[in-house]
Design a protein that fits this description.
With 286 residues, this protein is α+β, with helices and mostly antiparallel strands. Helix content is 33%, strand content 24%. Strands 3-4-5-6-7-8-9 form a seven-stranded mixed sheet, sandwiched between helices. A six-stranded mixed sheet has the order 11-10-12-15-13-14, sandwiched between helices. Strand 6 and strand 7 form a beta hairpin. The protein is globular, with a radius of gyration of 18 Å. Pfam families: Inositol_P.
Length: 286
């Protein structure tokens, strides 16, 4: 597990401003409308490639969107570091820049690429801003419905629509394991291991795989799910979503222990609406 660098910057005195947040929202909306959606259900065979395995996909939309988001982020935060999923696929060493960057923008240009490539409208854009390794702003954007969930550290989480309607978010009340509904990363496991995971969560009311961290965290923060399990700690999947969830009153545990940071590289994460549920699920999950 990567050692977390103690931040030198007090993030409470160096937040993302409202103007910067509005600019980030405008950026993701523009990229969603002009870059991502025109590619949805129009991809040709040559515009979809496999990375590490046949289900780990990248499309021309991922690459074009990341380029546009990177350029826009640098205009909003001159001199910032940008860490995008596709850039890291080309150069994994880029991950190491998160810890020391005064301002880092972490981007997943099309989260849920498998769904996107298969014409399933469950995908989104994830964007996080960190200061010296701590997430201070998170944005989970749905290009299909043009709405977003966002959070400032210490400022709560909100859902916003293109019509200008905003509402504060909170997770749903704590419940017992047998009442819990959530998501499991079934595609990360094959054969007997997949069966083991399903058996471990046999007591929950409902467990499914969305293949989209953006919508998994949105559902938790909006009180529409109770837990989400993930077997990897890619910062573009979790940095924004964890902040949103925590600001909505939820929590995460890594290998059963509290404490998430975008600098962590190894471990399995359970996000939940309550600490009690997270602890109970961790006890049976691994």
């Amino acid at each position: 597990m990567t050692t977390q660098i103690e931040p030198e910057t007090d993030v409470a005195t160096n937040p993302v401003t409202e103007a910067e947040a509005e600019a980030l929202v405008a950026l993701v909306r523009k990229v969603g409308k002009e870059v991502i959606l025109p590619r949805f259900r129009t991809l040709g065979p040559a515009e979809v490639e496999a990375k590490t395995d046949p289900t780990d996909l990248v499309t021309i939309a991922d690459r074009e969107a990341e380029a546009a988001l990177t350029e826009g982020a640098r205009e909003i935060f001159p001199g910032c570091t940008v860490v995008g999923e596709e850039a890291v696929a080309e150069d994994p060493a880029r991950l190491e820049s998160i810890a020391g960057a005064e301002t880092c923008v972490i981007i997943d240009p099309v989260d849920g690429t498998f769904n996107f490539a298969r014409g399933v409208a469950v995908f989104g854009v994830i964007l996080a801003v960190t200061r010296r390794g701590q997430t201070v702003f998170g944005l989970l954007y749905d290009p299909v419905l043009d709405d977003w969930v966002m959070a400032h550290r210490g400022g709560g989480a909100v859902h916003a629509t293109a019509r200008g309607v905003q509402r504060r978010l909170s997770v749903r009340a704590a419940i017992a394991v047998h009442e819990a509904e959530g998501t499991l990363p079934l595609d990360l496991y094959g054969g007997a291991r997949r069966a083991d995971i399903l058996r471990a969560f046999a007591a929950v009311r409902s467990a499914r795989s969305l293949r989209c961290s953006c919508h998994e965290y949105r559902m938790l923060a909006m009180g529409q799910a109770d837990f989400s399990v993930n077997g990897s700690l890619n910062p573009w999947d979790h940095a924004a979503g964890v902040l949103v969830l925590e600001e909505a009153g939820g929590c995460v545990v890594i290998e059963g222990e509290p404490g998430y940071a975008p600098t962590l590289r190894q471990g399995r994460i359970i996000a939940a609406a309550s600490a009690e549920l997270a602890a109970e699920l961790s006890a049976v999950a691994w």
